[in-house]
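Record type: ASSEMBLY
Status: queued
Input:
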Amino acid sequence: MSGPEKISATGKVGLTDTSLSDIAKLATKNFGAGHLADYIPALRDVDPHQFGLAVIGCDGETHSCGNADTRFSIQSISKLFSLTLALRLVGVDFWKRVMRNPSMNRFNSISDLETNAGIPSNPFVNAGAIVVSDAIVSRSSAPNRFVLDFMRTLSGKGDIYSNDKVASDEAELGHRNFALAYLLKDYGNIDNKVDDVLSLYFSNCAIEMSCTELASAALFLANDGVDPKSGTQIITSDETRELNALLTTSGMYNGSGEFAFRIGLPAKSGVGGGILAVVPQQMSICVWSPELDIYGNLVVGQFVLEYLVQNLGISIF
Amino acid sequence: MSGPEKISATGKVGLTDTSLSDIAKLATKNFGAGHLADYIPALRDVDPHQFGLAVIGCDGETHSCGNADTRFSIQSISKLFSLTLALRLVGVDFWKRVMRNPSMNRFNSISDLETNAGIPSNPFVNAGAIVVSDAIVSRSSAPNRFVLDFMRTLSGKGDIYSNDKVASDEAELGHRNFALAYLLKDYGNIDNKVDDVLSLYFSNCAIEMSCTELASAALFLANDGVDPKSGTQIITSDETRELNALLTTSGMYNGSGEFAFRIGLPAKSGVGGGILAVVPQQMSICVWSPELDIYGNLVVGQFVLEYLVQNLGISIF
Amino acid sequence: MSGPEKISATGKVGLTDTSLSDIAKLATKNFGAGHLADYIPALRDVDPHQFGLAVIGCDGETHSCGNADTRFSIQSISKLFSLTLALRLVGVDFWKRVMRNPSMNRFNSISDLETNAGIPSNPFVNAGAIVVSDAIVSRSSAPNRFVLDFMRTLSGKGDIYSNDKVASDEAELGHRNFALAYLLKDYGNIDNKVDDVLSLYFSNCAIEMSCTELASAALFLANDGVDPKSGTQIITSDETRELNALLTTSGMYNGSGEFAFRIGLPAKSGVGGGILAVVPQQMSICVWSPELDIYGNLVVGQFVLEYLVQNLGISIF
Amino acid sequence: MSGPEKISATGKVGLTDTSLSDIAKLATKNFGAGHLADYIPALRDVDPHQFGLAVIGCDGETHSCGNADTRFSIQSISKLFSLTLALRLVGVDFWKRVMRNPSMNRFNSISDLETNAGIPSNPFVNAGAIVVSDAIVSRSSAPNRFVLDFMRTLSGKGDIYSNDKVASDEAELGHRNFALAYLLKDYGNIDNKVDDVLSLYFSNCAIEMSCTELASAALFLANDGVDPKSGTQIITSDETRELNALLTTSGMYNGSGEFAFRIGLPAKSGVGGGILAVVPQQMSICVWSPELDIYGNLVVGQFVLEYLVQNLGISIF
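Status: finished
Output:
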């Protein structure tokens, strides 16, 4: 990892060269404290000692350091964007199929789904994201491409791709996601073929983007639903508030309560090592480092977010 | 119910005479849509067609309407203040005994407690609040009075009392709270006698305060832990953020996810019909109306809070 | 339905012409008290007002009445025979993959399987029977035919078949069984392809046999593991006792406790309307009538078994 | 422990001097394989290297060896007798308050009770036995004495007592039983004061009897409800079958499925180290040795019962 790379002049965001330098040191110091996700080869072959941070203000002010431009597997961070797309396509009726409740169970819990008779607790647990995929498959003839195009538009990068090898490895070993999808189908909460729905689900998880690209793509969530780069209204202002609420109560799965307590920002994590966080009306933040702790949380990422929240005073609470 | 009573000039809070008049009409229109809590006589004998609202800014700007000065049984709203007191007494070690997780189960779930081997999910479910009571009993020779004095100091009203009849009725019928306390005791998470701990618990629930008094007492949560009336630091700034996070993820029990989605404020409800909400750095809000919907949520109170959030733009998201 | 058809002279079994006549009346009187299983066309198109009974002593003494020779879909009764086959193929090591516990949950519960980390509670719940199918698939190049041949040998009827239409309808609508199989696969408790395993599972359920054929096929369970017709040892004497114990604690799913309390015989039911019961050291009994009560239990079948147990004094307790 | 003490001539029961000698060796060889129950002093102060066995035929034929006449704390074995008494007092209406289902959860599970809305799964789990105690308290002015008198009559020994120290120690530490009782009370399934109901419950558990006395007291269960010593009908023949069914599916708690699979007799265990088993129409068996395995099962007792079942061929299956 190299040190801080690109630093704009200190603006509203409040980050200084010193802060970024401190953050880079903090990150480097914690290398080795965790382990890589190892359920598929593509994730366990990543160089573990990498770290990237991008902070982008609603006015475009950008700070980044480390491997902020290195692309990584966004994994479950994709759930935030596919949900946004489903809301654009289906509107409020989407919520007939998924609840807005935190879940105490693991992200891939199947008991949770049975207890709730086929209605996932929220759109970020796997079962909920599979329903999101189904909603998109129903409304697109080329859904994988459709989601990719959405990510390209949001990030302003035309060359964003899903890694086919990662997607097929996940499909190969994703028995539990097949179990969730078939149980959803049994409850009538999947309209399309399980294989088609999961093809999109795995493709989305395998999208590769950098911290800078993800922070840029999520800026509409910090800006009342309007992408400040293009001025396009992605979702309504109300939907934006609702999405940020969901990220706060459920974005970190069964660790969401603890994350809100310690850090206090709407955020979505991915097993590839990324966390995307939103500071409403102010900025988006993406931090990435591949090592996870034994609970599957990001070691370096959480330290960096805690530092940022404390030093910039950006908790929503 | 009379119409708006006391209205200060429109200040930072942003409430106008027109808004308050609209809110009063909205409240009156929804009278009859719910039912009274009926498990103890004192709650079911309340006049159902009452409504009060108090909004107090950190600078003291106060708006209120309806029965804002009528005292009611604060019930579970007390859990917010007793937790504050436990944090003052015990500090961070308190969190060895209670988690910071939302619970999908009902507020009085006993399975939840068994699943977590005697560590309550959060301090707002009954099991968690019983541990809070135990922590206070361990540190006070006259715990009931100690809590009352805390409420008097926070609200600036020396004549706040707990209703003995309500407390003894709750004790008489509170078999499930005894079950929770004995299970906590079995897991070693209660140090004192069950009867002593629940005596404080029931006494706290039976405290009677008005909307104005509650909003005033909670102002420190909107002001980085400092009561703006006295300048006293009640809890630290960090603890204040943490408490507001907890209120957001767990303050409305298993309805917290939905409440965050729809309203977007840290808040605590009580079965007596009150909701106390916090707008960090800005104001506290207390709304009261005794009718509950079939899920135990406040019918009028939620309408009023939705109106306020939309019209004042005060969601934290 | 016709009345009693074939009655042998009263022997050790103790059934008389009068008893059989009473039973036929009892059955007819209760026609209409239930409803047909309706999740696949083949089951809901059966004539509901049918009833058959066959009782066969270990010495070959046979009593039957009604539609005792009409073939019906044996459904979950097949689980008893496929388990027997798996025990023959795998021996005691089979029990590393499945427990011997009653389950309080429904026969197709997926939470149960997740709670037990992929080890089914017993071999009669769907998850357990899917593991049984996997064990057979691993040891046979033509597993569907292999099971059919086993049924033909046990019943002495060379023309027993599985109904392809029923099997394919169940496969088409069997999303929950796919969910169970994929979850088992996720836990490493399925060695073969899910499609291959379920192909055998659905084929077994769709086998069609009559009361007389089923009672005859199960006779080894009443005779210390030896088929008295051929003198062949099907399973050991110890395995036979174990299997009868399993039938008693789990053969009627989460209704097993109640069934043992009321009737007191090792037994296995099927959604096609059949119940196969064993009286150790004495006889096997098969009763069939297609109507189920709202809990999925057989209305007529349970009445008839209660009558038999009371009149013949054949409870094991 | 001394060797075999009293041996009658070999009769219908089929036990020989050689068998009893083998059993005594088997028991001694396994001393030290387990540990004592240690939650109350009285249980952990017992000499662990003791073993007793009594086998009594319906005709009075008696075999015993080891410490068969040493009294021990019968603990949960008392649940069998208090249930018998409740059935005598209340009849079939008793079953409105308790189900007849095996439970997969531990004997003192409180989640189980909440899931079933206050109706215990069966009368042998603690919650069920507490309801049994309540039923007796409602129908007796001196319930503790009433149960003792019943035990004296059944065993023919006028000097059977409950150990007050054990009962008070259990009450002192029985927080979980208080939790269960208060939860039952909350659901309206306890009519009397919790303290009164548990006083009887703890008194029953603390009764002290020997293997010979317990086997003698249980003989009515092997004899269609009639105590063969006195000719008295204790419960009806149907109730006797039902009780033996319940013992088979639930008498060993969540180990009942496994116990039926391995041993195949209706039986009730106690944490004091005793197991009382019934061979319908033949005999009763009581084995005692204080050491438990890590699951709370009796190490020596289960070995001895397996030996007896295999050698005497007395499994009910």
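Annotation: Residues 1-10 of chain B have pLDDT under 50 and may be disordered.
Annotation: DSSP finds 13 helices and nine strands in chain B.
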